[in-house]
């Protein structure tokens, strides 16, 4: 079907579409098209569009029968991830980030906020700075495997990319277990483990993370099985020596520094989930050696149950997990 369309450079696509929509000229029943660096926006009144100063051409268009993806507006496939109703970009070029954000807002991607990473994860609380490109705040509710997690990306660390890995570990938990989550964040391990019937001791140094953790335990109906401790796990858990059947150590760059505490917390038969960053030539050796160096002198036998590559982190560097069972000899 031939339709009158406003023709404009792709970089002006969002501004053009928004202006046409404001004038009630946008034909929402026809698909926007992108070709050779130009965007073609269907309109309902060619004469009115020309009077408004736009170039109008007649063009074959198709009926709009589904969501409009950002690529249709941009002319290329952007890279982004979603966390609740926040869309997260990772663009070095601020102009490109703005262009992608505008296209996402124009598309049918459901979101309230678009942010671009402005720094690396840093500091004791493992948070980063963000450029807010659309929306009014950085708080959201993320849903993962049937659970809800309120969080603010500007105040806490959270990676939606690790959902599958978290689920893998959670599925190992049985009712009645006693679990220590040494670096719990807002509770993506602790809450679903408690939902499976475990008693969970969840620790974090970040006050905001602990605040959201407690909220999320209430939100998911497991507050009676989650004990949240604010502060360094090495200093807050003296009353829990020998208590744990399972210990989650998801602090990949430095979890090995906490192995003395993990072994102190372990009962006679305990599973450790140690996350590590290691070179691809020997991804699991450093973690296994570190566990043995601490656990064996403390009287434990060490059995490596699972060696798992979680994701590629940097060139030749992997984020890995070791599931290790330690038993009193």
Main attributes?
Class I SAM-dependent methyltransferase family protein, MeTrfase_TRM5/TYW2, Alpha-Beta Plaits, 3 domains, Rossmann fold, seven-stranded mixed beta sheet, GMP Synthetase, Chain A, domain 3, 17 strands, elongated, methyltransferase, tRNA methyltransferase activity, alpha/beta, 329 residues
User: What is the residue-averaged pLDDT?
Assistant: 94
- Topology as a string of helices (H) and strands (E): EHEEHEHEEHEEEEHEHEHEHEHEHEE
The CATH topology of the largest domain: Rossmann fold
**Which strands sit side by side, in order, in the main sheet?**
13-12-11-14-15-17-16
- Give me the secondary-structure category: alpha/beta
Annotated CATH architecture of the largest domain: 3-Layer(aba) Sandwich
CATH superfamily of the largest domain: Vaccinia Virus protein VP39
Number of helical elements:
10
Give the class-level CATH name of the largest domain: Alpha Beta
Beta content comes to 25-35%
How much helicity do the residues have?
25-40%
| Total number of strands | 17
**N-to-C terminal Cα separation, in Å?**
78 Å
Taken together, the total number of domains comes to: 3
Unreliable stretches: none
Radius of gyration: 25 Å
Could you describe the largest sheet, including whether it forms a barrel? 7 strands, mixed
Shape: elongated
Pfam families: TRM5-TYW2_MTfase, Trm5_N, TYW2_N_2
Protein name: Class I SAM-dependent methyltransferase family protein
GO molecular function: tRNA methyltransferase activity
Domain SAM-dependent methyltransferase TRM5/TYW2-type: 80-328
């Amino acid at each position: 079907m031939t339709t009158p369309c406003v023709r404009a450079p792709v970089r002006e696509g969002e501004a053009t579409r928004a202006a046409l929509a404001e004038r009630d000229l946008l034909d929402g029943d026809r698909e926007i098209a992108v070709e050779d660096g130009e965007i073609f926006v269907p309109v309902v009144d060619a004469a009115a569009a020309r009077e408004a100063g736009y170039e109008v051409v007649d063009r074959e268009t198709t009926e709009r029968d589904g969501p409009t993806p950002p690529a249709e507006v941009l002319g290329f496939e952007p890279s982004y991830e979603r966390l609740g109703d926040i869309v997260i970009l990772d663009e070095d070029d601020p102009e490109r980030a703005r262009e992608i954000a505008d296209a996402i807002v124009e598309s049918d991607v459901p979101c309230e906020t678009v942010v671009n990473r402005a720094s690396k994860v840093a500091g004791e609380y493992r948070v980063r700075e963000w450029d807010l490109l659309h929306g009014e705040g950085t708080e959201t509710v993320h849903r993962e495997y049937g659970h809800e997690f309120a969080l603010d990306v500007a105040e806490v660390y959270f990676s939606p990319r690790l959902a599958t890995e978290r689920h893998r570990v959670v599925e190992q938990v049985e009712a009645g277990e006693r679990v220590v989550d040494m670096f719990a964040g807002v509770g993506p391990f602790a809450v679903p483990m408690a939902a499976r019937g475990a008693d969970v001791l969840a620790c974090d140094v970040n006050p905001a993370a602990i605040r959201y953790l407690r909220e999320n335990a209430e939100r998911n109906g497991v507050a009676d099985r989650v004990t949240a401790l604010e502060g360094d796990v090495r200093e807050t858990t003296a009353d829990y020596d020998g208590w744990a059947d399972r210990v989650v150590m998801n602090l990949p760059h430095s979890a090995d520094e906490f192995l003395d505490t993990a072994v102190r917390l372990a009962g006679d038969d305990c599973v450790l989930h140690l996350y590590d960053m290691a070179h691809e030539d020997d991804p699991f050796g450093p973690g296994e050696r570190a566990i043995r160096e601490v656990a064996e002198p403390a009287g434990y036998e060490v059995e490596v149950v699972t060696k798992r590559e979680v994701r590629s982190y940097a060139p030749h560097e992997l984020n890995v997990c070791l599931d290790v069972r330690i038993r009193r000899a």
